[in-house]
Write a structure and sequence with these properties.
CATH class: Alpha Beta
Shape: globular
Helix content: 25-40%
Strand content: 35-45%
Radius of gyration: 14 Å
Largest sheet: 4 strands, antiparallel
Number of strands: 4
Structural class: alpha+beta
Length: 98
């Protein structure tokens, strides 16, 4: 199966990680219901202050629709003051079925 994999690493400002996690609840809940979404998780690093969204999408079009969604836009505006930066990788992937 071919899909789009997104790794979005979030660097919260000092003392703001819990706030970003709380604000992500609605984003995750709504995104998991989107057509074209395969999986959407938020992971907390054990080594540093970062958070990573790991996303799987059926197509690039589904990802683009997600990025235009009201819940995605709201998350961006709500977390603007709590995040230093984000690094986003978008990868076209294919399962190897090993």
């Amino acid at each position: 199966m071919d899909y789009i994999l997104v790794l979005a690493k979030v660097y919260p400002k000092s003392g703001c990680k819990d706030t970003v996690i709380e604000l992500s609840d609605d984003l995750i809940e709504n995104t998991l219901c989107e057509e074209g979404n395969i999986d959407y998780q938020l992971l907390k690093s054990l080594n540093d202050n970062t958070l990573t969204f790991i996303e799987k999408w059926q197509s690039l079009d589904a990802l683009k629709e997600h990025m235009a969604s009201s819940h995605f836009q709201l998350f961006g505006s709500e977390t603007e003051d709590f995040v230093e930066k984000m690094d986003i990788q978008v990868i076209g992937a294919e399962d190897l079925n090993l």
